[in-house]
Amino acid sequence: MQIAIDLSPVVHHKAGLGRYARMLTEHLVTQDETSAYIAFMHGKFADDALSPALRALPRANVPLDARPWRMLVWLAHVLRAPMDRALGVPRADIFHATEHLLPPLKNARTVFTLHDLIFQFFPEYHLPLNRWFLQNAMPHFLRRADAIIAISECTKRDAIRFYDVPPEKITVIYEAAAPALRPETNPERIAEVRARYARNQPFLFFVSVIEPRKNVCALVDALRVLRERGYPHRLLVAGRKGWLYQDTFDHVKRTGMESQVNFLDHVPDADLPALFAACDAFVFPSLYEGFGLPPLEAMACGAPVICSHVSSLPEVVGDAALLIDPRDAGAIAHAIERVITDRALRDALRAKGLARAAKFSWERAAWETLAVYERVQSSRFEVQL
Hints:
It is built from 17 helices and 13 strands. By secondary structure, the protein is an alpha/beta fold. It has two domains: 2-176 and 362-378, 3-Layer(aba) Sandwich (Rossmann fold); 187-357, Glycogen Phosphorylase B (Rossmann fold), CATH 3.40.50. α2 crosses α17, α4 crosses α7 and α10 (216-228) crosses α15 (329-341). Residues 381-385 have low confidence and may be disordered.
């Protein structure tokens, strides 16, 4: 098979989507010795945005930035105009859309990864143009795709609920923590990272893009409760600024917590294992996730995890985390207090988390994705134009 995979999320540095596309493609290329892979990207990008393994792939590129490219794809769906030639992959057997953007194709079979339907649950957390695009384009993408990969059972249920997608069209394939994310066992390294990021103070840790849906404000409120009870902990927030991030920064200022909350922006992957090892708890009070990779990454590095009991998160963490109501700052504070004062609980969460994270792997995700490709290629569904 000749398989074209959209690596645009990688080269345009889209956090979760980029990591998904990169990790999946690297493992597919390594494990699948019989297929030929093509890297598709839109827009301009720097070569060093790709890893060496992905840099070596043949490429196809549409020189349009995100906004005109998205509108062109949507218009092609509306006009029922195939885009095989425009993509530059006329001989591809499979085109895999790794983000929420599926060009209509006539010759290639298409696989569409559905990460979430957040815009359906929290439309107010999307910029107006992005919300409009997804509301109008998503029905086309889900109808037109020959197969859909959902990254959780929760996301699959959402697709069936909102768009009446036939269940048999959707395959659930879980993500995983990157292989490099494993427990840091060097005490000197842990001490160095603690001193550099937390000034040798005890701390809580949060990793993700900063946007209202991630609910960092509730975590700040929980920290304020703990500080009032005499706990000396700081909060370290690692992640780039996302949609409507200013609300979170304003809340920190409004509550007088600037000196207790450190926004680290991007943290190098090499520092994450030591930060996970040094924190007293990793807390993730997100209001909705299509999968929820940060808690799994924290578990893979041996951090005790506290996370929301909503959407896909219970499905991902199982019984290896303390689950909380993300809208109840008091409940979040109580869970944190339990973890930081009960060593036995903390150690149990670390051990359970490591075992839970080991159940997920990119090797497995790649084999399951390849099975979807083979099933789609061998089928003869009628292409709807």
